[in-house]
Design goal:
Order of helices and strands: HHEEEEEEEHEEE
Structural class: alpha+beta
Number of strands: 10
Helix content: 10-25%
CATH superfamily of the largest domain: Umud Fragment, subunit A
CATH architecture of the largest domain: Ribbon
CATH topology of the largest domain: Umud Fragment, subunit A
Low-confidence stretches: none
Largest sheet: 8 strands, antiparallel
Length: about 180
């Protein structure tokens, strides 16, 4: 057995080793290109987006094509670099785009619309909130988030297999009856 291994190693030429290394480098570069600029998968855990995502954690497909807020709308769920926790990504729903007026409710409260303080989302920012308001640290705590911190749009839950689905925009524009 040992003799066969030695013979196999002797047959490996420097050119073959170079090609093997080059192929490995190509795979690494392709993987990096895809995860940095096209799509990536992220584990989301915690109560802030319940019931949309499980408290114990779901793996989410993130479109990196929506980096810096490109093509996002009110109601989309985005991934962003957390403004107060270094190195942490957050996932929240967009409630206001630049120039929109939003009601700034008290942090960690279910009392929606009671404070009656309206703010205008500054240019280059979005207003984010978790779906589970009493358990969400969001724009009610740290204010509107710069679009530069948005690093993708969550488009699907990919794990666990029993819950694979597209992430829906649950906020619909108001429909007014014409008089």
């Amino acid at each position: 057995m040992e003799r066969l291994l030695r013979q196999g190693l002797r047959r490996t030429t420097p050119g073959a080793m170079f090609r093997l290394g080059l192929n490995g480098l190509g795979v690494f570069c392709a993987f990096t290109l895809i995860t940095e600029h096209l799509f990536t998968v992220q584990l989301a855990e915690g109560p802030s987006m319940y019931p949309t995502f499980s408290v114990r954690g779901d793996y989410l497909l993130v479109s990196r094509l929506h980096k810096h807020g490109k093509g996002i709308e009110v109601g989309d769920v985005v991934r962003f670099y957390h403004p107060t926790f270094l190195g942490v990504n957050g996932a929240k729903r967009v409630l206001g785009m630049p120039g929109d007026f939003v009601c700034k409710d008290p942090a960690f409260s279910t009392e929606v619309g009671t404070q009656q303080e309206m703010i205008q989302v500054p240019e280059g920012h979005v207003y984010l909130a978790g779906d589970n308001l009493p358990w969400s640290r969001d724009s009610r705590n740290y204010g509107p988030v710069p679009l530069g911190l948005v690093n993708g749009k969550i488009i699907a839950r990919v794990w666990p297999p029993s819950k694979i689905e597209w992430v829906k925009n649950t906020l619909q524009p108001a429909q007014f009856e014409e008089e």
